Amino acid sequence: MSHELLDSRGYSRDMRTSKAALVIGIIGLLLAVVGCSKQVTGTALPDPIKVPLALAADGYGIVAGFDDAVARIEIFTEPQCSHCSALQREFGDQLQYFVSVGRLQITYRPLTFLDDGYDGYSSKVANALFLAAVPAGDAVTTGTQFQRFVQELWVNQDPGGPAFTGDELRDIAIGAGLPEAVAGSIASDDKAVDIADMEEANFTSLFDIDPVTAGTPTVYDLEAEEKIDVSDDDWLDKIVQS
C-alpha cells in the first residue's frame, strides 16, 4: 500500500529538486485520482473522555492517546497520498475507537514531499494538524477529536488540487468536534511549525525505518520497533491485543 519514495541520508531542505524527480511518478498517479468532496456532513458528538493530545518530544509529530496505551505507533502520512486516504477510510474509525478507550497511542508525522514548495496543499494541511494540537485559551483538542480531524482531512483530500481555504479547514475541524476557538485558529493559518524542518526530521526518521522503500503510509510499531504490514486487514487488532 506504500508509495515508493527513495532518498539518502544526505536529505536536506535544499534537495527539493532531486526529490521531485523521485516522486514525479507518484504525483502523476495521484493526479489521475478523482478528488474527494471537501464537504463534511453530519454532527460531531461531544468527546466523553479527555484523551490527551500533545506534540512529540522533537516537535515534529502530534501524539494522540495515553502514554500507558497497550500499543504505540507512528504514522508517516502525506496529505495528498491516496493510499494514506485509503488507510483512514478503512481504519480511521478503529483508530479513533482504540485511542478513545486507551488501548492505542498514535504519533502522526506529516510529510509534504508532494508539494512543489513549502507553501502548498500538503504544507497547509500539515500546519493545520499542529495548530489543532495547540490550545486556544482554555479550549483544548482531545486525542479522539484529533483522530477524527485527521480522518476527515484525508478522506476529503483533493490530490493535486487547490489547498483547503481557511473556512474549509475550520468547517472540517468543527465537523470533527474540535473546539470552536481551536477551529478559528486553524482557519487563520498561523504558522505552527517550520515545514522545512519538519519535513527533514520526519523523512530522516522514515528513512531510518525503511531506507529501501521509504514511503507513505508507513505505520511503525514503537513497542516492537518494526514496520507494520498494513496490507494485513487485521494489523490493528493484532497490535492492540498483543
List keywords for this structure.
Glutaredoxin, 6-stranded mixed sheet, 242 residues, alpha+beta, single chain
Strand content: 5-15%
CATH homologous superfamily designation: Glutaredoxin
Q: Element order, helices and strands?
A: HEEEHEHHHHHEEH
Query: Tell me, what is the CATH class?
Result: Alpha Beta
Largest sheet: 6 strands, mixed
Number of helices: 8
- The N- to C-terminal Cα distance equals 23 Å
Mean pLDDT: 85
Rg calc: 17 Å
Helix content: 40-55%
Beta strand count:
6
Strand ordering within the main sheet: 1-2-4-3-5-6
The general outline is: globular
Quick take:
This protein is of the alpha+beta class. The protein is 41% helix and 11% strand.
How would the blueprint of this fold be written?
Layout: H1 16-31, E1 53-55, E2 62-64, E3 71-77, H2 82-100, E4 104-110, H3 121-132, H4 143-155, H5 166-175, H6 180-188, H7 195-209, E5 218-221, E6 226-227, H8 235-240
Parallel strand pairs: 3-4
Antiparallel strand pairs: 1-2, 2-4, 3-5, 5-6
Helix pairs in contact: 2-4, 3-6, 5-6
Word description of this protein:
The chain is an alpha+beta fold and 242 residues long. It has one domain: Glutaredoxin (3-Layer(aba) Sandwich), CATH 3.40.30. The protein contains eight helices and six strands; from the N terminus they run αβββαβαααααββα. Strands 1-2-4-3-5-6 form a six-stranded mixed sheet. A hairpin with a 6-residue loop joins strand 1 and strand 2. Helix 3 runs antiparallel to helix 6. The longest helix is centred in the middle third of the chain and has 19 residues. It is globular, with a radius of gyration of 17 Å. The protein starts with 15 loop residues before the first helix and ends with a helix. The N terminus is likely disordered.
